[in-house]
Each structure stands twice: as C-alpha cells, then as structure tokens.
Amino acid sequence: MQPAPEPKKSSRILTYDLMRGYFLVAIILNHLYWYPNGLDWVAARGGLFVSAAEGFFLLSGIILGIVRGRKLLNKPFTVAAKLLVQRSVQLYITSIVLMLLFTLLGRWFFIDNPGLKPGIRPTSQPFIDVLFGALTYEYIYGWADFLRLYAIFILFAPLALWLLRRGKAYIVLLLSILVYATLPLFQEFTRYSDELLMPVTWQVIFFGGFVIGFYTKQISARWQAIALHKQRYLKTVVFTITIVTLGANILLAFGGGLSDTFSYLHKGLLPYFDKESLPPARIILFGIWFLASFWLFQKFEPQIMKFFGWILLPFGANSLYVYTVHAFVIFLVHMVMKDASSNIFINIGGTLAVLMIIWLALRYKVLAKIIPR
C-alpha cells in the first residue's frame, strides 16, 4: 500500500479524510434510504456484500494508529494511553446518552409513528431496566450504535499500543484473530444476537487498521521498494478482481427482475457476507475493494478535492461529529417521511436537504463543545 505523503502544513493525510468523508456520505444515504434519488451509485443502496462501514472503521483504526501511536512515540506510553482511555470514556458516555435520548423521544413522542426505528424497548418496561441495558450495552438503539464499538475498541487500544511499541505487532494481530475466532462460542453459550456480538468480530478490522497506521511509513517504504512493473501488476490484479466481483455483486443484488437465478444465488451467498458476524469471505472482499478504493482516491485526489472536497473533506476530518449529528437528523426526518417517495425529485430534494443540514451544522459548529469530533 502506498499512502499519500503528508501535507507540509498539516499532519492529516488528505486521501484518508476524503475517503472517510465518502464513506460517511454513503452511510447517511443508506440510513436515509430514499431511493431512487440519483445518488444510488454512491452506496449501491446498501445492497453490496461489503458496506461503507468497514472502510470507515478501518480508516479510523489507521488514523488512530498514526495519531496516538506513531506520532507519540517520543512521549511516554502513559501519555498516549491516557488520551486513548479518555477518548473511550467520552465515546462511552456519548453512546449511552444518545441511546437513552432516542429511546425517551421514541417512547414519549413517536411510539406510534411508522417511521420510528424498530428495536425500541416497550413503554411497559421500567426505565431502570432500559438504563441498565444501555449501560451494559445489552440494549442498543438509535442511529449512532457504532459509537459503542469505538468506545470498546479504544478502551483496549492501550494494550495494542504497548505491544506495538515493543515490536510485537504479530501478537496484536494474533490476539485480534483469536478473539474473532471465539464468535461461535459466544453464539452457542450466550443469548446475545450477532448484532450485540459485533465487538467480537468488528475489532479485527479496527485493530488491523491500528497496526497499519502504526507502521504506515514502513509499509509505504516497502511498497516503494517494489519494482514499478510489479506494482502495476499487483494493481491490475486488485482492480480486475474488484471490477469482476463488484459487477457480479450488483447483478446478483439488483438483477432479480431479470432472472430468478440471480435472486436465488444472492440469497444463498448472503450468509457468507453477513454484516454483523463478519465472515472471512466478507473481510477478504472488503480488503480487496478497500485497496482498490484507496488507490483510486490517491490517483484522483486533486479532481475529487476540486469537485467534492467541500463536503468530503470536512465530513472526513470531523467524522464522529458528523456521525453523531446524522443520527439525530435521520431519526427525526424518518418521523416525517419513513419510506422513499415514488417521485425521484422528492427523494433527491429530501436527500440533498439532509446532507446540507448536516454540512451546515458542522460549518456553524452546532453543539460542537458537546458532540465529539
């Protein structure tokens, strides 16, 4: 992998921010789900075997590995560890507050609204039970539930950082894989759903990114040391696999109207690409698609920046803020318009309005002192 060089006046890597911004836009569009809206191509209506969420998590791990890992090597370990724990606590509190707020709003004002997101605890359940469920993450609700994953992963990040500082990256990766491999045990011996067990599976993406971020310069140097003709060959292989698999995925997901065979094959393959349990096939496909996406964003960075930088860059650089704000906006707009309209122009107008609301909230720093950035 050949990351873009760091800007001279900033420690941020532009390609990463643009990609995170793109993944966030895709997540927002899929949560809104007002299709067709002319932007269907951005996220394929969430119908792919790999989602934007994986890319968002991997990039978050990479950036954390750079900012709290590599860039603080000259600082004592306790400095970096303290910052990580503080961030984890901040996200834990934020996730709990949001879950409770969405639950209370839903139970008090929107319980009979068809646009209310499913999964809310019934009004007959005592609030103390709801509170305990939220505090223990046995109850998750709302459109910002991924914050709980960040809170958990970052809490364990100091251990990974301690090992990385001692050159034990292989132990970090081995431990991550071992935790991932325990999923069948949790499924058999606990009552938790695959959604509640996502910390067990999705950590492999986050900590994989954390290791990549910590060793970004070394990875870049090794890539540069590869002969150019070999680089071109590897890129050709990755892009070819991406084009073929992406095309096949789109055909299977949306070609049901052409042939029942497509629907049958798509249904049969879905268990191997489940989003919550994150089977190996999905991880492998994600890795290939992500690498192709990275090279595309890197190659066309000036053009992407020129035409879409106005929204992708601020979204990517303030990802947690945007993710949190989007949760409120999606929650509320679904109370007005749950399903897509039959009029594509209404869908386009509504979708663009939602994106602009979030963009304006970021530009004018609405609740910026409260919402994590």
Topology record:
Elements: H1 14-32, H2 40-43, H3 52-69, H4 77-108, H5 127-135, H6 146-165, H7 169-181, H8 183-189, H9 198-214, H10 216-225, H11 228-254, H12 260-269, H13 280-299, H14 301-317, H15 319-336, H16 344-363
Helix pairs in contact: 1-3, 1-13, 1-14, 1-15, 3-9, 4-6, 6-9, 7-9, 11-12, 11-13, 15-16
Written overview of the protein:
The protein has 373 residues and is mainly alpha-helical. Helices cover 70% and strands 0% of the residues. The chain contains 16 helices and no strands.
Please tag this protein with its features.
373 residues; 16 helices; 0% strand; 70% helix
Mean pLDDT: 93
Regions with pLDDT < 50 over 5+ consecutive residues? 1-10
Q: What does the radius of gyration come to?
A: 21 Å
**Could you say how many structural domains there are in total?**
1
By secondary-structure content and strand pairing, the structural class works out as mainly alpha
Cα(first) to Cα(last) distance is 27 Å
Percent of residues in beta strands?
under 5%
Q: Tell me, what's the shape? A: globular
Task: Briefly characterize the structure.
The chain contains 16 helices and no strands.
